Amino acid sequence: MAVSTPTRSAVRPAPRAGGPRRSVDRPNWAAGALSLVWLAVVGFPLLLLVIWSLTDRRDYQRNGPLALPDGIAWANISQVFEARFGTYMLNTFTVTAGSILLTLALALPAAYAIVRSRSWAASLSFRMFLLGLAIPAQAVIVPVYLIITRLELYDTLRAVILPTVAFNLPLVVLILSGSLRDVSRELYEAMTVDGAGPFRIFWKLVLPMSRGSISTVGIFVGLNAWNGFIFPLILTQDLNNRVVALGLWHYQGQYAVNVPGLMMAVLLSTLPIFLLYLFARRWLIAGLAGVGGK
Amino acid sequence: MTPGAGGDRAPRPGAVYVLPAALFFAFFAVLPLVLVALLSFTEWTGIGDPRFIGTDNWTRLAGDPLVLTSTRTTLLLMLFAWAAQTALALPLGVWAAGRQRNRAVLSAIFFLPLLLSSAAIALMWKSMLDPNFGVAAVVGPWIGVPDGNLIGTPRGALICIIITVTWQFVPFHTLLYQGAARNIPAVLYDAARMDGANRWQSFLRVTLPQLRNTIVTSSVLMLVGSLTYFETILLLTGGGPGDSTYVLPFLMYQAAFERSEMGYAAAIATGLVLLGTLLSLAIVRFSGFSRMRSTLEGM
Q1: Pairwise CA distance, residues A248 & B297, whole Å
Q2: Which chain B residues have a beta carbon less than 8 Å from that of A105?
């Protein structure tokens, strides 16, 4: 298995990988059929999710789960927002933005050093991040709780951001350093001609060159932060510090018989990400695929 | 040509560039790993200071019947979820790497579950599986569950969890396989075709061997990932009916944050870390994954 992988362009993920295309053009009926079945499996629940969100709650109980709604029940939306959904969304935005910024601020210089530095600290850190990939966040919630309470950060949004960033760091550093390796030596050489120091090289060369992977990694971290559940669960308490994922769980208790209300909350909690997906799908997919490619 | 290990004369960044990230990670991820092992020898309610009690937590762990059932459920889930996900993700990924028309549209829909949080997915499936108001009430009678209570029996609840996590994670693994299948050199397929191989044979002789590393990577991620199906279980079954869907992370969460037995929870967590590490090592050794390290050594 010594197939040299073609270097992925770090600047712009191509819509189709530049690798060799298969010249086999026979239609593959078996796999095609499987993918259609899977399409139904993926699509059906999501379709129901949308339909139920728009169904009046009394209609839902009367007509059963497979009926189409008579009209759009806008009341579901106002109901969800009356239940503090707006606060939860705002908190989630804060946690997501904070996590993305802090992760990038830490990971970019680190990736630059890992690729270019000759200090032992850089190679040791690289090994630590490699091994760190395998640390399961779930298994260390007790000591994380201990650390956060000792820092007197319990029940703040910062308490959620810190471990979220930590557990995203290894992968982000690895992806960024992977893309930085593609920056050719001549470019560094060219920078030195006018006497640039390491910081100026970082600012003028490394950052612009990793634009593509920065957005990829940013989306990746953002997705994890947005959907994170376990850190908010154990590190926050107050209603005013609640994030959406946690809010959904509490709605489930309140809305035991109001399926449409709950589904509307689920739908709204995903809406920002879905919009992002519409506009930045290629980055997102490239980022996720980069995880397995490295 | 080793990138990075350059002969260029550009100035190199010092350790100061890597230290913030390294120290941050060490403090919030590596330190907890050490602490969790230490805490497993203490008694701590979450308030005040942990008190050293020797191996009490560990003897209790060894004699706890719930730990035994949870471990069994954890392993069962791991195995079935891995089988279901791989059986779907591998062919789907290979198919999506091809050049069919409409592939872009289909792929866009395939990956939608990636956007939803575990919490959202678990609640969506819970509503669908609700025996009174959900789809289960309609579908149940067709598949031999007249009362629609699929999720109300130990075996049914386990199947529901497997369905939910498969729905959630197949898209990601499809992506991995798709990326890998695209990198298989076309010439191999041409050669197989010249030798008169039909599609199935070239799948067996070309695609599968070429995807070997990806199968290992994906399997490690699935198996280790299955140790963390905590959210799904908390929201979907709550460990029920009875204690039939208790898994180790769920047991640990309950011990720590519902019964305030932080020390005992730390012992369960340490066991979980050991299990995960052993698992990864076993897969890596067993599959010759270590030979793949060469791709990582571009230092």
Answers
A1: 43
A2: 20
